[in-house]
TrEMBL record:
Keyword terms: Carbohydrate metabolism, Cellulose degradation, Glycosidase, Hydrolase, Polysaccharide degradation
InterPro entries on file: GH, GH_1_N_CS, Glyco_hydro_1
Gene3D superfamilies: Glycosidases
Pfam families: Glyco_hydro_1
Organism taxonomic ancestry: Eukaryota, Fungi, Dikarya, Basidiomycota, Agaricomycotina
Protein name in UniProt: beta-glucosidase
Function text: Plays an important role in cellulose degradation. Shows hydrolytic activity against several glycosidic compounds.
Biological process per Gene Ontology, one example term: cellulose catabolic process
Keyword Hydrolase among UniProt keywords: yes
Documented EC number(s): 3.2.1.21
Gene Ontology molecular functions: cellobiose glucosidase activity
Catalytic activities: Hydrolysis of terminal, non-reducing beta-D-glucosyl residues with release of beta-D-glucose
Keyword Ribosomal protein: no
Length: 463
């Protein structure tokens, strides 16, 4: 075990997202987002669950900050609900001062408790008004302008206190789950729209960053970037076909965003398969897109083993499994089918990103939903052995990447502060280090809270 430590300015804490925790959909002038509409449509979420109440955090935000304080963090990542701030969403629509005030109070409470706010501007809850008006992320001319206008308002109103901005959370999910498989809002299906949406998300991100750099950065002194998601993809065996397939899988999930943003072009593997369904950037756009992130924001949960084949173009025609050639499983199974604990993959991923993109890395999400936590009695839930194992292994992998491999990892946000609304899976999977009783809204810390706190106390150098 490495005895080296993370630098004393290492950022750590917990992450959440507006629609997953806030509830109070109609409070103080908020109008619906596409997730309100989607989750209220029959057949879209497990058990018909929706975010109407969630963890009631629009009202209980002070209690959340008190928990963060108790948990010893130095940072908290959360997102704004766009339709609280501009209820209809657009650049000519009214601004809602009550919504602005809510986040101002939260930010001030965090700062006065010594907790650095990391704000995500867009964590999937597009104002329904923009979806209805012009098709949301499908309409390049409109959405880029409206998003930049919204971002500007946020920089103006909060930038004196917020120094860490994330433009988008996981654009892959918005593109593919929202517009290709249709399991997330707005629920569209097909093989074309998601390339357009992904392209427009990149442009909206890039123009918001340009605005921040041109008009705010000098006076406010913050940083701004995007958070992308990837399960590390390891070839199933060392056959050349599977090794090639793993890279193609990475390109289709991560490279489709990271390569334009950090290098200035789409991966060749994508161009050759997708052809003219892949939009092109104009010369002027490319100047804005290339280099448009101050850091590499990373959400990652697991590793997948990759085999050549299959006919899923969205995945780059590769197949995924957790079963090794010798028949064993990669790691401990989580409640959701897509997640097994495999920390060496996390270390490999951090190294890959550093080598490929040469940017400081902010881990903005990482976490584990324990199997059957939703039906276990509370005294068993708080004893969250599998989550403890997960954090212990992933944090040590991060430490090894940072100290032994020299990867500049700057932050670690565990997902999540609270059990919450897990999108199409409803309230069944529980990712929180805090148990939430959804009948009473009572919060109970699980044992992982202390394990994570102790780990950071022991592994961050003192100043
Ligand atoms: C992320 N998948 O989403 C999101 O940023 C969070 O809002 C979410 O709660 C968290 O991870 C846990 O799921 C994902 O299907 C959604 O592979 C789906 C997948 C991965 C991440």
């Amino acid at each position: 075990m490495s005895t080296q430590k993370l630098p004393n300015d290492f950022v750590w804490g917990y992450a959440t997202a507006s629609y997953q925790i806030e509830g109070s959909p109609d409070a103080d002038g908020r109008l619906p987002s596409i997730w309100d509409t989607f989750s209220h449509t029959a057949g879209t979420t497990k058990g018909g669950d929706n975010g109407d109440v969630a963890t009631d955090s629009y009202k209980r935000w002070k209690e959340n900050v008190a928990l963060l304080k108790q948990y010893g963090v130095n940072a908290y990542r959360f997102s704004f609900s766009w339709s609280r701030i501009i209820p209809l969403g657009g650049r000519n629509d009214p601004v809602n001062e009550a919504g602005i005030k809510h986040y101002r109070a939260l930010i001030e409470e965090l700062v006065s408790n010594g907790i650095t706010p990391f704000v995500t501007l867009y964590h999937w809850d597009l104002p329904q008004g923009l979806q209805d008006r012009y098709g949301g992320w499908l309409n390049k001319e409109e959405i880029v302008q409206d998003y930049v206008h919204y971002a500007k308002l946020c920089f103006t109103r909060y930038g004196d206190l917020v120094k860490n901005w994330i433009t988008h959370n996981e654009p892959w999910c918005v593109s593919v789950l929202g517009h290709a498989t249709g399991v997330f809002a707005p629920g569209h299906k097909g093989n074309k729209e998601h390339w357009i949406v992904g392209h427009n998300l990149i442009l909206a991100h890039a123009y918001a960053v340009k605005l921040y750099r041109d008009e705010f950065k000098a006076s406010q002194g913050g940083r701004i970037g995007i958070t992308l998601d990837l399960h590390w993809q390891e070839p199933w065996d060392d056959s050349p076909a599977n090794v090639k397939a793993a890279q193609r899988g990475i390109d289709f999930k991560l490279g489709r965003f990271a390569d334009p943003i950090y290098k200035g072009y789409y991966p060749e593997t994508i161009k050759s398969i997708v052809g003219d369904r892949l939009p092109e950037f104009t010369k002027e756009e490319l100047v804005v897109v290339k280099g448009s992130s101050d850091f590499f924001g990373l959400n990652t949960y697991t590793t997948q083993l990759v085999k050549e084949g299959g006919d899923s173009e969205i995945q780059g025609n590769v197949k995924y499994t957790f079963t090794r050639p010798d028949g064993t499983q990669l790691g401990t199974q989580a409640h959701v089918p897509w997640l097994q604990t495999y920390a060496p993959g996390f270390r490999s991923l951090l190294n890959y990103l550093w080598k490929t993109y040469n940017m400081p890395i902010y881990v903005t999400e990482n976490g584990f939903p324990v199997k059957d936590e939703h039906i276990l009695p509370l005294e068993q839930v708080v004893h969250d052995t599998d989550r403890i194992e997960y954090y212990d292994r992933y944090l040590n992998a991060l430490l090894q990447a940072a100290t032994e491999d020299g990867v500049p990892v700057k932050s670690y946000f565990a997902w999540s502060l609270l059990d919450n609304f897990e999108w199409a899976d409803g309230y069944e999977p529980r990712f929180g280090v805090t148990h939430v009783d959804y009948k009473t809204q009572k919060r109970t810390p699980k044992e992982s809270v202390e394990v994570v706190k102790r780990w950071f106390t022991e592994h961050i150098a003192s100043s």
